[in-house]
Structures are given as C-alpha cells and as structure tokens.
Design goal:
heterodimer, A: alpha+beta, three-stranded antiparallel beta sheet, 4 helices, B: alpha+beta, eleven-stranded mixed beta sheet, seven-stranded mixed beta sheet, globular
Chain lengths: 109, 872
C-alpha cells in the first residue's frame, strides 16, 4: 500500500481540520485535496482517513451532514465546528513550534 | 461530558451509523473508479484497482467503530446476544434451568429478606447508626433476661449528666383502649419522653410532636400523637384529626399530631398511639404502680435509647454511662452490674442473637443446600449441553478461537441464565415472605417486608456465586477435549463423565439430608398433635371478663375482685370452675426464683409458677401423684403443689410432700401433680402452683357441659357489680391449634424444600443416566450384537452410573443424622433418629431413583445393534 509517509501522531487530524477551513468537504474530497496540495506526497488511505474522521466527530471538532455532491450523488460532507477551529489554531501553533525546533536541530552544525 | 453524550447517541443509533459509514465507503470507491476511468482504464480494471486501493473495508469499518466503542465492550455485547440466541434455541433446557434457579434463588432471597427486615434493619429513624439502645445489666443471678430497663428517675439523671448523647429518650409500651375498644381488642401505646420524635428525627405527617410543657410531671396533659396507619384505618385519615379529642381508657385525650408513614415505633409491634409519660397519671389515676413508676428511683422499667454525639463510639458512651449508673444506684442503695449499649437492629441485642442464630442458621442451611443442589443440577445439564455442542466448539476452535474466548462465551451464557434467574428470584422475594407470614400468623406485620438495596445485592451475589458453581466448571471441562479427537468421532470422554458422577453424588447426598429433615419436622408436628399435653384440652373452655379501663386501677380492681370472690364462693356453679391467672398454652409464663432451705441466696434458680384454684386441677384433669390439692387456707400459709419435673430434679427418689422451698418466704409442698404442658408444648419446666390470690380477676376454666351455666352466673354477677363489663368464652383447643401453627408452617416449608430437592435430584439422576446411554449407544449396540442378554446390558448401564447414587446415600444418611441433632428442639420429643422417618425417606428415594433410571435403561435395551453400529 502506498500510504502517506509516516505522520506524527495526531497530524492527520490536524491536516483534515486545516483542509476543512476551505469549506465543507466529503471524505473523498479531503483525500484528493491533501494529495493535490502536497504534490502527491501525502496520500491518505481510507483505512486511516475514516477512523480519523470518526475520532473528530466524537471529539466534536467536525460535524457531518448529508448533501448532494457535485455529480449529484448523496455524500457526507464534513465541516469545521467552533471547537474544531479552536483546536486547529492551537495545534497550528504547537506544530509551527515543533517544526521550527526540529528544523533547528537538523540544521545545527 | 458532551463526549459521553455523543457516545451514547452513537450507541443508540449505531445501526444507522453503520449504514451511513457503508454508504460513505461506497461513495468513496465509486469516486475512485470514476477517477481511474477518467485516466483511461476500462470500468472492470478501474473497479479492481479501486478495490485494491481501498483495501480491507471491513477492517476499516471495525476501526471506525472502535473509535466509538471499546472493542471489549462490543465483544461482551456480542457474547450476550449470542448467549441469548443459544438459550432461546433450547427452550426446554432454558426453561428448566431458569425455573429451578429462580425457585432456589427466590426462596433463598425470601429468607434473607425476612432476616433483613427482622434482624438487620435498624429503627426507621434519621441517621439510624447514631441511635443506640441503652440497657441495664441485671445483677440478679436468675431470670430469662440478663438485661432490663431503668427507672424514669434514673433516666432523668442520665439525661441531665451524660455528655455522650445529643439526645436521650425513654419509652415504655402499655396496653390501652382506644375509643370503644374492649379488653379483648386493645391497642398498644408507647409512652415516651417529650423529646422522643425530635431525637429520633421522625417527622410529622400532620400536626406536631410533643412540647416541653407536655412532659412535666407536675402538670400532666392528656395529649397524644397517632400512628399513621392507625390514623388511616381507625380515623379514616381524617384531615381534621389534630385537635380532636378521643377516648383512651375512657379518659379524653387530645390528638396533637400524626407521625409520618414510615415510622412504626421502636419495637416490632404496631403502636397505635404515642403519649408523653406524665399523662400516665391521667390515664391511670389512682394506680399505685403508675404513680411510683413516674417518680420512684427504684421503680422499673423504662427503656432508654439515645442519639450519640457525632463521632463518639459506643464504648466511650458506655464508659461514661457506667460511671453515672453506679453513682445513681449507689445513692439509692442499689447494686449494678453495668450498662450495655447496642445498635437498634434486632440482631444487635445480645439476648436476641442466640434465638435468631438457631432459627436462621437452620433455615439458611436448608435453602443453601437447595441452591447448591440446583447448581449441581444445572451444571450437569450444562455439561450435557457442552458435550452436545462439542462439535460446534471444536469448529470454532479450529477456525482460530482461543480456549479462553470459548470459555468466556460459555460463562456468559451461564451468567445470563443466573442473572435472569436472580431477577426473577428477587421478584419472587417481593411476594413470598409476606404471603408466608400472612398464612402462618394470620396477621399483617407492622413493618413493610420489601427487598431493599441489601437484599438486591444479596440476590445478585447469589446469582454470581451460583453461576460460578454451575457455569465455570462445565465450561472449563467442555473446552478441554482436544479438538482433533472430537471432530473425528463423538467418542465418550471419560473425565467429563467423572465430573457428572460427582455432581450426581452431591445431589443425592443433599436430597437425602433435606428429605430427612423435612420428614422429621413433619413427624414432629404429627407427634405434637397427638402429644399428651398432660391435661384435658378437648371439651374445656375458658371465660374471661372484659372490664372497662377504669376498673384496672388498683383500688377498683381489688374491690371488684373481692366482691367477685365472695360471689364465686357462694355460687356452686362458679365454685367448681378452675381459676387461673394464665390460660393454658397461651405461651406466657410467670416465673420467679427459689432456693432450698440451707442454701445461700446465690443458689437461687428460676422456676415457673401458676396461680390457680383447686378446680383448675380437676377441670383440666391433672392427676395428683401424692399429697393433696390446694385449699383456700393455703393462701396464708403459702403452701404449694409442685410438678413431677421439679420433684425429680430436686428430690430424686424421694416424696417431695412435706418438703419446703424458699421463694420469698418458706413454702411447704403439700401436693405433687403429673407434668402438664400448661405453658407451651416444649419441654416441661420445674413448676409450682400456688393458690389464686383474692385481689386479681381470674380466667375461669370450665367443662363445656357446664359452660352455659357458668356464663349465666358470671353475667349475673357482672350485671349486679359492673354492668359495663362482659364475658367472653373461648375453647382451649383453639389455643392448642395456635401453638401448633408455627411448627406446621415450618414443617410445610421444610416439606416444600424437601419435595423440591427430590424433584431436582430425580431430574438430575434421569439426566445422567440418559446421557450415559446416549454416549454409550455404540458400545451397547456392539455388546448386544455380540450376544449380550438384556439383563447384562441393564447391569452394564447401572454399574457405570449407579455408583454415585450409592455413594450419595452412604454419605447422605450419616450427614442427615448429624443434621437431625440440630432439629431436636423442634421435634416435640420425637427421636431425631426416628427409624420410621429414615425408612420412609429411603423408600421414597428408591422409588424416585428407580423411576429416574428405568426410562434410560429401557431405552438402552431398545437399541438396535445394526442402527447403533451404523450411527455416525
């Protein structure tokens, strides 16, 4: 299976939340979007995507609604809740700090 | 919190969630197919590629579900659903197991419910564990009770001086007549201190409790608080009852309140009314005893209870009270042997403990054996099922289920069974104890017999324990067989057989013990019914006089009694009647102490005494063995007649006539009578009879032939002397019946348990033999094909499974012999080794065993060798 390069724990959820800031999306759309935006690096398999979405639902960070898709099929659209936005902001900050720290370590001489 | 809510919502709508998830997955895959086709693949190729990429969808679904529900919880749920389905598929087995378990758990829980209400439950008051009974330990060397109450004066002293209690109360029960009640229908009132309701924290349903000014000795007020159920039943729940004046012992008394519904007083009896102590002086004016009791420091007894200061132990309170008690008694020249403090539940009273232990130990032993028997039986059925399911289990194991997983599944089935039975047993326990009490004692007890949390926990614990016994062992056994052998043949597995035989042996043992116990109790009642009470019961009646309440004041009573006595002496009809203070078999007794001349006071021992006239002996037909009967002149001299038991114990081999005992004063023994069970049907105690005193109103014992004449004569006397009084006649046989009721019910219950045990054991025996025949069909067929005669086949079957029956008998007989010794006191003199009983039980068991074995053996004989060998 061509899965995403090993993600840090919890990163996938953050990525999903970030994707949803653009507006409601269905699961397939999220996977496509992540693939596109990361230049085909992040390939999110269904086996990790859907459990992650369920976890977010359970935490109340996203909410799901059934709606007609672009090609007029019934699809489940996920959108960000207020709690999800807050969570994302916090994680974003934490993530930036972490990346900066890793970057510093890796480029230290 | 919100997360939990979402989780619950998920749980309730999980099938919809499942469907949604599936639809979502399908959408995903369709989109992927579309995408691939857009890249130029054929639809077939695209579908295959998409499926490959999406991978194991069911695993994914599992994972998505696991987000919401812990996996183990879900698998427990699955186990339960599966278990329910398995049980539902075998309705006969399930019904049998469920029925037997429900009965045993129900019977057991019912007994515990009773025990809980009677013995464990404290008074229905606020924070009951702070409330304790305070008792006075008596210095007297004899008597039925080693503890008693205190004088009211001492109570007041303790209340004032003690620092251990946030409130100390005193109470005493007295019989009163409410409204127009007659002596035969009197009510119990509790006389209490003014702080009674306040200290106990009992709220009022109506009105108020007592005020301080209502508890003043110098200014008594006739006020009362009604009991709730009395208010409902006797006053129709009149909402205007507060302020109403009712007559109590013909004295007007104002109702100031109605106690709340849950409170029934501080003793198990039903109290109709609560009255402050000082009102005793108004209700019994001129009663010397009442006047003394209210004030004299020596006049006993009020019962004391108190609410301990928070965090103070009973020992600390006891230490303080003992000092105060000694101080008070020393000031009034009395001895003391200390103070006893105990909780308010019945079982915490030391004198109650002994009685209860005996009664409940026996009953708990009985019902526990039934439960054990049921467990052995259900365990056996489960084993048989495990054997029948051998293939199912083996297949499940061979496709990868671990042994523990299967054990868990089997135990879940047992657990479901046990808990269902526990629930139904609990339901049975809601109904059964009340029903038994009503049947046995013909009256509704004052306390509500409802299972509470303790009982519920008990039933749950019982279910779990029985599940452990009947479920776990068969599950372990059933999964032990190696799957390979089982899949290839349905060979018998001998060790499983051994466990079944062991269980069968236990069943037989238990049912022997229970049946012997039941049969002995039955025989005991039979014995008691035909027991010679030592006096004539049939054809004898007793008459009692119902007198208005004010007659019971000391002076009135004495005057009336003396008038009565002179009338009695002048009327030949009345003179021949027997006078007695106590009606025979009324289960009440008067006792005192006595010693022999030359003995010190420490040697004083208890003795029962009756106050009777000479007519008593002739009407009841009590035989004189030596000496003469009582005469009126014996009153001054204090002469007495004694019974055989007393004579044999203190003057063995000698005639007691002419001897002297010291009881208050020296008393000359003038006559010796045969033993008579005049108190109860239990053992006869050493007893003496003294002349009936002139200042008491007697009960009249009379031959039925003379009953009309005596009734007329007494009515005539009442008409002249006390027109408000009336005469009531009852027969002695009624008393005999009543005193046998308890034992009858006991024997009935024991009999019920015994039959239950027999039925269970019969089913168990039948099951084991049937199973044996079924398992050995091939071997039996082979033997028959080789020319075995039917008798040899039968012997073969019996030998294999008959041994546990014999072993069960062999252990059961001595065990029941030992158990019978415990029952001795309930047998009315029947020998615990009564041969008739044992013979009857053995015959009954033999017949049952024969019936249980015959059917399977006949089935074995009908085996067609050709069919049997082609079986499989």
């Amino acid at each position: 299976m061509r899965d995403a390069p090993e993600l840090l724990p919890g990163t996938l959820e953050m990525l999903i939340l970030k994707s949803l800031t653009r507006g409601p999306m269905h699961g397939y759309g999220i996977a496509q979007y992540l693939k596109q935006i990361s230049d085909d690096v992040l390939y999110v398999g269904e086996s990790s995507l859907y459990p992650a979405l369920q976890r977010l639902l359970k935490k109340g960070h996203v909410r799901a609604e059934w709606a007609a898709s672009d090609n007029n099929r019934r699809a489940r659209y996920y959108s960000l809740t207020r709690a999800g936005q807050k969570q994302l902001a916090g994680e974003q900050e934490e993530f930036d700090r972490l990346i900066l720290a890793i970057h510093k370590v890796m480029h230290a001489s | 919190m919100l997360g939990l809510f979402r989780q619950l919502k998920y749980w309730f709508r999980r099938s919809q969630h499942e469907a949604e998830l599936a639809e979502e997955m399908k959408f995903h895959r369709d989109m992927k197919v579309q995408e691939l086709r857009a890249k130029g693949l054929t639809s077939d190729e695209a579908a295959r590629a998409a499926a490959r990429e999406v991978g194991n969808t069911s695993l994914m679904r599992e994972e998505s579900r696991a987000v919401w529900l812990p996996v183990w919880l879900e698998s427990v749920w699955q186990d339960l659903v599966y278990a329910a389905r398995m049980l539902g598929r075998q309705p006969v087995f399930t019904a049998a197991a469920l029925g037997a378990l429900t009965l045993s758990i129900g019977v057991n829980t019912s007994l515990f419910t009773l025990f809980n209400v009677v013995a464990l439950r404290p008074w229905p008051v606020k924070v009951p564990r702070q409330v304790v009974n305070v008792q006075n330990v008596m210095a007297r060397p004899f008597g039925d009770h080693s503890t008693s109450g205190f004088s009211l004066a001492e109570y007041r002293f303790l209340k004032q001086e003690s620092k251990s209690f946030s409130g100390l109360i005193a109470m005493r029960e007295e019989t009163v007549r409410l409204g127009d009640e007659t002596a035969g229908r009197a009510s119990l009132a509790q006389f209490v201190t003014g702080n009674f309701f306040e200290v106990l924290g009992v709220p009022m349903a109506l009105g108020r409790g007592f005020l301080e000014e209502e508890d003043q000795l110098n200014n008594p007020r006739a006020v009362g608080v009604l009991d709730y159920s009395t208010w409902r039943s006797r006053f129709g729940g009149d909402p205007g009852i507060v302020g109403r004046v009712i007559k109590v012992d013909t004295v007007p008394l104002t109702i100031v309140g109605v106690a709340s519904a849950g409170f029934t007083g501080t003793t198990p009896a039903t109290h109709a009314l609560y009255v402050p102590f000082p009102a005793l002086a108004l209700l019994r004016p001129g009663d010397k005893w009442a006047a003394g009791f209210l004030r004299n420091p020596e006049d006993c007894c009020a019962y004391i209870a108190g609410r301990l200061v928070p965090h103070l132990s009973q020992e600390e309170a006891k230490a303080e009270l003992e000092v105060l008690n000694k101080q008070f008694r020393a000031a009034h020249g009395e001895k003391t042997a200390g103070v006893l403090i105990s909780g308010t539940s019945f079982v915490s009273k030391p004198e109650a403990r002994r009685e209860l232990r005996m009664m409940f130990t026996l009953m708990f032993l009985g019902v526990s054996m039934i439960l054990l028997l049921t467990c052995a039986n259900v365990g056996n059925l489960l084993l048989a099922r495990a054997a029948a399911r051998q293939r199912e289990l083996a297949i499940r194991r061979s496709i990868g289920a671990g042994r523990w997983r299967i054990v868990r599944q089997l135990v879940t089935e047992s657990l479901l069974l046990a808990l269902a039975a526990g629930g139904m047993g609990l339901a049975l326990a809601v109904w059964l104890p009340g029903f038994l009490l009503r049947t046995a004692f013909d009256e509704v007890p004052s306390f509500a017999i409802v299972p509470d949390l303790t009982v519920t926990l008990y039933a749950c614990g019982l279910s779990l324990i029985s599940c452990l016994i009947f479920g776990v062992l068969p599950a372990l056994h059933g999964t032990r067989a190696a799957e390979a052998t089982v899949l290839s043949t349905s060979a018998t597995v001998s060790h499983r057989f051994r466990l079944r035989n062991l269980l069968l042996g236990i069943q037989v043992t238990i049912s022997v013990v229970l049946l012997v116990a039941a049969a002995l109790l039955f025989r005991g009642v039979q014995e008691a019914a035909t027991l010679d009470p030592g006096f004539r019961v049939r054809g004898v009646s007793y008459l009692s006089l119902d007198l208005p309440a004010d007659m019971y004041q000391e002076n009135n009573l004495r005057r009336f009694s003396q008038q009565l006595r002179s009338e009695i002496d002048s009327s030949p009809v009345v003179r021949e009647a027997g006078l007695a203070a106590l009606v025979p078999l009324s289960n009440s007794r008067h006792s005192t102490g006595f010693r022999l001349p030359g003995e010190t006071e420490e040697k004083t021992r208890p003795v029962v005494f009756h106050r009777v006239s000479a007519g008593y002996f002739s009407v009841l037909g009590i035989r004189f063995l030596a000496g003469r009967s009582l005469q009126p002149s014996d009153r001054e001299s204090g002469s007495i007649v004694i019974n055989e038991t007393m004579a044999k114990r203190y003057w063995p081999g000698e005639s007691p006539v002419g001897k002297t005992i010291i009881s208050g004063k020296p008393r000359l023994v003038v006559g010796l009578v045969a033993d008579a069970h005049t108190t109860s049907l239990d053992e006869v105690d050493p007893t003496f009879y003294e002349p009936f005193p002139p200042d008491q109103v007697p009960t009249f014992l009379v031959d039925d032939a003379r009953l009309p004449a005596l009734t007329m004569a007494l009515n005539e006397i009442l008409r002249q002397r006390e027109p408000r009084g009336s005469v009531r006649a009852r027969s002695l046989s009624e008393n005999l019946e009543r005193s046998l009721t308890g034992s009858r019910v006991g024997a009935g219950i024991a009999g019920g348990l015994g039959i239950l045990a027999l039925g269970l054991a019969a089913i168990g025996t039948f099951g084991v033999f049937s199973f044996a025949v079924q398992q050995q069909t091939r071997e039996l067929g082979l033997r028959m094909a080789l020319g075995a005669r039917p008798s040899q086949v039968a012997r073969f079957v019996l030998r294999a499974s008959g041994l546990p029956l014999l072993v069960g008998f062999a252990i059961g007989l001595p065990a029941s012999f030992a158990a019978a010794q415990l029952l001795t006191s309930q047998l009315y003199g029947l020998n615990p080794a009564d041969p008739l009983t044992y013979a009857a039980v053995l015959i009954l068991l033999a017949i049952t065993g024969f019936a249980a074995v015959t059917v399977p053996v006949r089935r074995a004989l009908k085996i067609d060798p050709t069919v049997a060998l082609r079986y499989e």
